């Protein structure tokens, strides 16, 4: 046996490993949270502090005017001097909530039924259909922008939340079907066979056996669908024209590209509009991880 | 086997109906439009064959934009893969606070790209941004720099902002891959007595190759159609410096109202995406043989 040196009760290679791991985690923590925390910290500063190059980096006095303006903006009209974006801000959050919630519910309703034959039934053309459904994800959204715009105009459905729900649904559905069929495959076949022998129909086994057992999978898929459609910007940009259907990403872009709006309002709008998706993601992180990872492992 | 076909189709029909109406039909329509001169400013919409395509392929601007898109893709995907892999390796170790750090990765991931644009626009602000303040304080720059209005910093800024939201997903998927091979790696390393870096290059990376290729494919496809962050941060500028294909299609179509030409351009982007996917799949299949 050779001599083993010890530093702080650890062998040198072990110590090196620990230093690397803890040093690395500090760097990663700073990288993933730093930019966002800076935005949050700036949002509490009065405008003149933000514009003072030599002032303190962190808030010395707290100021909530900009937040108040965004949250109560809908009570005022154009004569109040509150910018248009701020007055429609809360409405746009509500619109996003309706669209993302609608997409999540509908995609689970349609997707959970569609995933069943792909996971459990043998039929001609199954592989083709799997490939076809997943293959539609390869089409860039922007390639469909013109037809969507013309179609929606032709049937008089532009500037409507229903339209946004249907169109986001089509892009999220293939993903949902893929995740759910992977989840169904993890349910033991024997359970289903027993039910079939007892005289249960295909539809019956789906509703009595598969769906109740897949609840965690459905929740995680639904949350992913919600977050994906919350983040949609492109379709909302080309298919909405007024505050009745502007979503929060569209209003955020109106803040970002308007040079006349105060810095602090833009920053506060940024912070407020990520509160729903970020808190959603952190609260349901277990579900999201399993959803993201099962899709990756099987796909 | 045969009698299963109709029941299966029954289950699938609502989903297929949605996909047919909102993806397949519009895609066919876009294909149709791309062979017509179709501008909302004019009433006539004559069939022009491949003229839209030949005009695009013959223009220098198009190739310049393809080049810009390629630069954006290669750099951002390279950074996403490298940083994602490093973070995954870190999270594969056992240490206090690991679960917390993994959960916090979802913060950048959940931020919509448009809001991510607001975030970086503030950090990079030419007059009051923190980046300018810090660099000035430590003496790296002599005066405040207008990062988004000059080259090459505009391109680099867009890439940094884009990479920030895309790293978490890559890291999490690579981490899942690492966890599925960790036993094999440990066994192999015990036999060889290999050090950390040897293990990484000789054992872990080859075993992880299928997962890495899948992440690489998805990130390439995402990066090819980048749009949101460009819209908010640079609007394709300065000049045409950050005009990627996605941005060009949007501005062609919705400011010039040239729907035929815009559709042809969109078809070319679709084709490019398809080529990338096919190449990666071919590579993956070859690996398995």
Which labels suit this protein?
heterodimer, A: 299 residues, MetI-like fold, flat, B: 289 residues, mainly alpha
Q: What is the chain-wise order of helices and strands of chain B?
A: HHHHHHHHHHHH
Give the distance, in angstroms, between the N- and C-terminal Cα atoms of chain A. Answer: 49 Å
- The count of strands of chain A amounts to 0
Roughly what fraction of the amino acids of chain A lie in strands? under 5%
3D structure, described in words:
The complex is a heterodimer of chains A (299) and B (289). With 299 residues, chain A is mostly helical. Chain A has one domain (84-298): MetI-like (MetI-like fold, Orthogonal Bundle). Chain A has 15 helices and no strands. In chain A, helix 5 (89-120) crosses helix 11, helix 5 packs across helix 13 and helix 9 runs antiparallel to helix 10. The mean pLDDT of chain B is 87. Chain B has a domain at 74-243: MetI-like (MetI-like fold, Orthogonal Bundle). In chain B, 75% of the residues lie in helices and 0% in strands. Chain B has helices spanning 5-33, 51-58, 60-91, 98-104, 106-110, 113-123, 130-137, 153-192, 196-224, 228-233, 245-256, 259-288. In chain B, helix 3 (60-91) runs parallel beside helix 8 (153-192) and helix 8 (153-192) runs antiparallel to helix 9 (196-224). Chain B is mainly alpha-helical. In chain B, 41% of the residues are buried. Chain B has twelve helices and no strands. Chains A and B meet through helix 1, helix 5, helix 6, helix 7 and helix 8 of A and helix 1, helix 3, helix 4, helix 5 and helix 6 of B.
Topology:
The complex is a heterodimer of chains A (299) and B (289).
Chain A: H1 12-43, H2 47-50, H3 65-72, H4 84-87, H5 89-120, H6 126-135, H7 145-154, H8 161-185, H9 189-197, H10 202-213, H11 215-230, H12 234-239, H13 248-256, H14 263-283, H15 285-298
Helix pairs in contact in A: 1-14, 3-14, 5-8, 5-11, 5-13, 8-11, 8-15, 9-10, 11-15, 13-14
Chain B: H1 5-33, H2 51-58, H3 60-91, H4 98-104, H5 106-110, H6 113-123, H7 130-137, H8 153-192, H9 196-224, H10 228-233, H11 245-256, H12 259-288
């Amino acid at each position: 046996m050779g001599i083993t040196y010890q530093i702080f009760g650890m062998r040198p290679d072990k110590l090196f490993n620990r230093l690397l791991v803890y040093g690395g985690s500090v760097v990663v923590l700073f990288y993933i949270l730093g930019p966002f925390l800076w935005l949050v910290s700036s949002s509490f500063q009065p405008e003149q502090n933000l514009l003072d190059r030599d002032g303190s980096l962190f808030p010395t006095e707290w100021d909530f005017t900009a937040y108040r303006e965004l949250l109560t903006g809908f009570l005022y009209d154009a004569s109040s001097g509150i910018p248009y974006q701020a007055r429609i801000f809360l409405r746009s959050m509500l619109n996003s909530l309706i669209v993302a919630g609608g997409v999540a519910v509908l995609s689970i309703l349609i997707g959970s039924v569609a995933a069943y034959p792909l996971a459990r039934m043998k039929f001609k053309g199954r592989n083709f259909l799997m490939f076809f459904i997943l293959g539609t994800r390869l089409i860039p959204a922007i390639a469909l922008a013109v037809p969507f715009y013309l179609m929606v105009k032709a049937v008089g459905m532009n500037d409507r939340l229903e339209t946004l729900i249907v169109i986001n649904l089509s892009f999220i559905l293939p993903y949902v079907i893929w995740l759910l069929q992977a989840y169904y495959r993890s349910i033991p076949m024997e359970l289903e066979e027993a039910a079939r022998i007892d005289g249960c129909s295909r539809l019956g086994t789906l509703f009595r056996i598969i769906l109740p057992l897949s609840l965690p999978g459905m929740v995680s898929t639904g949350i992913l669908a919600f977050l994906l459609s919350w983040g949609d910007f492109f379709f909302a940009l080309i298919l909405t024209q007024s505050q009745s259907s502007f979503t929060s990403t569209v209003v955020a872009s109106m803040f970002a590209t308007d040079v006349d709006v105060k810095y602090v309002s833009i920053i506060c709008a940024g912070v407020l509009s990520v509160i729903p998706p970020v808190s959603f993601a952190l609260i349901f992180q277990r579900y999201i991880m399993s959803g993201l990872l099962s899709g990756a492992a099987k796909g | 086997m045969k009698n299963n076909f109709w029941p299966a189709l029954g289950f699938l029909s609502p989903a297929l109906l949605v996909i047919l109406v909102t993806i397949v039909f519009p895609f066919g329509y876009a294909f149709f439009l791309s062979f017509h001169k179709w501008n909302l400013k004019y009433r006539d919409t004559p069939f022009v064959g491949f003229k839209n395509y030949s005009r695009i392929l013959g223009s220098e601007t198009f190739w310049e934009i393809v080049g810009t898109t390629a630069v954006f893709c290669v750099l951002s995907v390279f950074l996403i893969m490298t940083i994602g892999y490093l973070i995954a390796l870190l999270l594969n170790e056992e240490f206090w606070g690991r679960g917390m750090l993994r959960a916090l990765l979802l913060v950048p991931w959940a931020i919509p790209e448009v809001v991510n644009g607001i975030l970086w626009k503030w950090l990079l602000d030419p007059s009051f941004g923190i980046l300018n303040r810090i660099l000035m304080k430590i003496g790296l720059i002599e005066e405040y720099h207008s990062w988004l209005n000059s080259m090459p910093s505009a391109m680099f800024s867009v890439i940094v902002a884009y990479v920030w939201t895309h790293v978490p997903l890559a890291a999490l998927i690579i981490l899942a891959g690492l966890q599925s091979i960790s036993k094999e790696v440990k066994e192999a390393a015990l036999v060889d007595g290999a050090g950390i870096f040897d293990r990484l290059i000789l054992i872990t990376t080859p075993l992880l190759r299928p997962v890495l290729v899948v992440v690489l494919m998805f990130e390439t496809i995402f990066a090819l159609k980048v749009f949101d962050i460009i819209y908010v941060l640079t609007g394709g500028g300065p000049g045409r410096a950050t005009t990627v294909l996605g941005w060009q299609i949007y501005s062609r179509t919705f400011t010039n109202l040239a729907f035929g030409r815009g559709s042809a351009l969109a078809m070319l982007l679709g084709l490019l995406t398809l080529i990338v996917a096919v190449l990666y799949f071919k590579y993956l299949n070859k690996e398995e043989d």
